[in-house]
Write a structure and sequence with these properties.
CATH topology: Sodium/glucose cotransporter
Number of domains: 1
CATH class: Mainly Alpha
Main location: membrane
Structural class: mainly alpha
Shape: globular
Helix content: over 70%
Protein name: Sodium/proline symporter
Number of strands: 0
Catalytic activity: L-proline(in) + Na(+)(in) = L-proline(out) + Na(+)(out)
Strand content: under 5%
Order of helices and strands: HHHHHHHHHHHHHHHHHHH
Family: Belongs to the sodium:solute symporter (SSF) (TC 2.A.21) family.
Membrane topology: Multi-pass membrane protein
Length: about 500
């Protein structure tokens, strides 16, 4: 079985590298091509690449694992994610696509923040780039942990060896093809994830005589649905739903909106993306729930709930199908890592190096600097991922909250509130990120636990950031006329598009 699965994974690796080579030959000669695919990405690729880069390994490992260990409490996380993704498509996507082009063709999120206030190298650019590099390094390490666990659980390889295989392939095609390679591979990976998350729970359910038997077996380990909602408590429900707030501030997701070929294509991307997300989340939750019932009935021996998808793939399917399903896990992991590496390297080369040293580089030199940035971020993330005891969902949760609090209010107010000032933006990023770090890391409670044990850190972080932006902006000067004009042009183009 392992031999056949290795063949499937090898073919998958070859396909990803081939896409990287294709993209290298078609879109990486200039900066716009390397970072945004020349703003010519189709709605289909936009939707599935946004979904695949969003969901990562936690969709096939973290979320089923959450359902396996938390039971029906995990449904609130899913509800928050679906609502947040939908609002992101409705509120952020169309305005950001138009506004970033009007703002002197901003190519990165920090670049947009800076040009939004008519400041080519404003402090908001450097600070937001630093936050991106910090939290994306943590986020990338979560993906690498998932990769290491995958090879360890599926093939019995050493964890560190699996980690190195994962990072090597991702870095290779990201270095080659930039944004176009990342988007095209994400599209393929999104299709694989969709099929896998429909197939696995349906086949696993056939191991029971009926759905009722499956639910009865699951009920031996998890609290019934009605009782679960009563026992969670209001703060726990708010914490779970608050995952949806994070969407407004995730650079690797909203950069897809900047790259889509036209604002008119966003509606199609939204319909495709939300349909994909609904099916895959249901499949992930069902995998975790059926996994609880399967373990109770058949006692296969499972040490880590986050590997239930791998267990099903190995036990229930022919080796050829098993190899495909294992490739789906790796696809989910690699899709997000590649997006995070690209956004981080873009910030390092475009927003930090050029802004800090005021270096004027030609297009090819800047692309080369971006590739060096990919290697740098990957190296640091790999070192952080050497600890294989870390929870994937926990690592993702910390990084997700950091971005959501630091950038979420800023993105929304940048697009909808002309009165926001440069000082307000800087204060919002610092206060949001700082609140998340304090809330999640410092043992401030009497029992030595952080405040995040009471409520998810994105909630106070988002509130503090939004409040700070508004207060500091009102104290500062009115924004310049250029900003007001950009808002008017954006409104007019959106009216024409609809």
């Amino acid at each position: 079985m392992e031999h056949t699965s290795y063949i499937s994974l090898t073919l998958y690796f070859i396909a990803m590298l081939a896409i990287g080579l294709f993209a290298y030959r078609n879109s990486t000669d200039d900066l716009a091509g390397y970072m945004l695919g020349g703003r010519q990405v189709s709605p289909q690729v936009t939707a599935l690449s946004a979904g695949a880069s969003d969901m990562s390994g936690w969709m096939l490992m973290g979320l089923p694992g959450a359902m396996f260990t938390m039971g029906y409490d995990a449904l609130w996380i899913a509800a928050g994610l679906l609502l947040g993704a939908l609002m992101n498509y409705l509120l952020v996507a169309p305005r950001l696509r138009v506004f970033t082009e009007e703002a002197d063709d901003a190519l990165t999120l920090p670049d947009f923040f800076s040009k939004r206030f008519n400041k080519q190298n404003g402090s908001v650019r450097m600070i937001s780039a630093a936050v991106i590099i910090l939290f994306f390094t943590l986020y990338t390490s979560a993906g690498l942990v998932a990769g290491g666990k995958f090879f360890e659980s599926a093939f019995g390889l050493d964890y560190q060896a699996g980690l190195l295989i994962t990072v090597s392939v991702v870095v290779a095609y990201t270095l080659l093809g930039g944004f176009l390679a990342v988007s095209l591979t994400d599209f393929v990976q999104g299709c694989i994830m969709f099929i896998a998350l429909v197939l696995v729970p349906l086949v696993a359910l056939q191991e029971f005589n009926s759905s009722s038997e499956m639910l009865d077996q699951a009920g031996r380990s998890i609290t019934p649905l009605a009782d679960s909602f009563e026992q969670m408590g209001l703060l726990a429900i708010i914490s779970s739903l608050a995952w949806g707030l994070g969407y407004f501030g995730q650079p690797h997701i909203i950069v897809r909106f900047m790259a889509i070929r036209s604002v008119k294509d966003i509606a199609a991307a939204r319909n495709i993306g939300m349909s994909w997300m609904l099916v895959t989340i249901i499949g992930a939750l069902a995998t975790g729930l059926i996994g609880v019932a399967y373990v109770n009935k058949f006692k296969p021996g499972l040490d880590d709930g986050e590997t239930i998808f791998i267990l099903f793939s190995e036990i229930l399917f022919h080796p050829l199908i098993s190899g495909f399903l294992l490739a789906a896990i790796l696809a989910a992991i690699m899709s997000t890592i590649s997006s995070q590496l690209l956004v981080s390297s873009s910030s390092l080369s475009e927003d930090v190096y050029r802004a800090l040293f005021h270096k004027e580089m030609d297009q090819k030199a800047t692309v080369t600097a971006g590739r060096i940035g990919v290697l740098a971020v990957a190296a640091v993330a790999t070192l952080l991922a050497l600890d294989n005891n870390a929870s994937i969902l926990s690592l993702v949760g910390n990084a997700w909250a950091g971005f959501g609090a630091a950038f979420g209010p800023l993105v929304l107010l940048s697009l909808f509130w002309p009165r926001m000032t440069h000082g307000g933006a800087v204060a919002g990023i610092i206060s949001g990120a700082g609140t998340v770090l304090v809330w999640s890391q410092l043992p401030l409670l009497e029992n030595g636990q952080p405040l995040s044990s009471l409520i998810y850190e994105i909630v106070p972080g988002f509130i503090v950031s939004a409040t700070t932006i508004v207060l500091v902006s009102y104290v500062g000067r009115e924004p310049c006329k250029t900003t007001q004009e950009a808002f008017e042009v954006t409104r007019e183009k959106l009216k024409q598009a609809t």
